[in-house]
Every structure is written in C-alpha cells, then in structure tokens.
Design goal:
single chain, 6 strands, alpha+beta, three-stranded antiparallel sheet, 149 residues
Length: 149
C-alpha cells in the first residue's frame, strides 16, 4: 500500500497506508501529537521533507516534495474541458466572421473600381520630352549620340 497525498492551497493532507493500531507520525525529526490515520500539514512551505508513519510492528516512509501556492485555483477536468471547448468555438466563430467579411469586401471593391474606370475617361499622359523616342528627321536633340560600331 502507498501513502495518499492531497494538496489544496498550502495545506497538505497525508493518509497513512496502515489501518489498524495507534499511528505515530514523524516528519523530518519532528514527532507530532497526532495518532490518526490522516495527518494535515498547514501552511506547508514547499520544502522537501521525510514523512513516516508507524505502528508497533510496521513502518512506512515517504519523501515528500510537494509544491504548494497561496493563490492557486483548483479546476476539475470538466471545467478545463469547458474552457478549451469555449475557446475553440470563439476562435472558429471569429475565423468564419473574418472570412465572410473579407469575401464580401473583396467582391464589392473589385466591381466598384471597374465601374469607376469605365465611367471616367482619362486624357492620355503628357509625354516627357526627356524620354521621347528618336524619330527620323528630328536628330537635333540626339545629335551627340553616335552609333557604336
């Protein structure tokens, strides 16, 4: 049989595997007055300790290295499952909302720009004289250019 250890906040409850007789506890050199099967350590400081419980003819020992905290909240499996499922539902809801909003915006934006382009007529761009193509008969501007041979 084994010890049963329960942790709640800073309280550690240890249950001895021995069932009959008067139980004597010893915790790292200290012998508490308790003779019951369960021993409660209030305000445990998370330091490792050696715990033993014994009767007249039997002794069980255990090394206790329990981490405790003052502001911890205990959650059962159902609460954790509920939190995870709710988070997934909210995430999928936001994804679907973003998908449909972007899908609708994309359709409106592309048809609106086509209609504007068809309604408005723009004049042709003004040619830049620095980038005019060379035409026959107008060699004056480009007289400094020579063909490489």
């Amino acid at each position: 049989k084994e010890f049963l250890v329960e942790i709640s906040g800073t309280t550690v409850t240890i249950t001895c595997p021995l069932t009959e007789g008067s139980i004597a506890w010893e915790i790292t050199g200290i012998q508490p007055e308790s003779k019951e099967r369960k021993y409660v350590i209030e305000n445990h400081d998370s330091s490792p300790t050696n715990v033993s419980c014994s009767t007249d003819d039997k002794k069980h020992e255990m090394y206790l290295n329990a981490r405790v905290c003052t502001n911890c909240e205990e959650l059962d499996a159902l609460a954790v499952t509920g939190i995870i499922v709710a988070d997934l539902l909210i995430t999928f809801g936001v994804l679907i909302l973003v998908y449909y909003c972007s899908k609708n915006r994309k359709g409106k934006g592309s048809t609106g720009s086509r209609l504007q382009g068809q309604k408005m007529q723009r004049p042709p761009p003004v040619p830049n004289p620095d980038y005019e193509p060379i035409r026959k008969g107008h060699q004056g501007v480009y007289a400094g250019l020579e063909k490489r041979g």
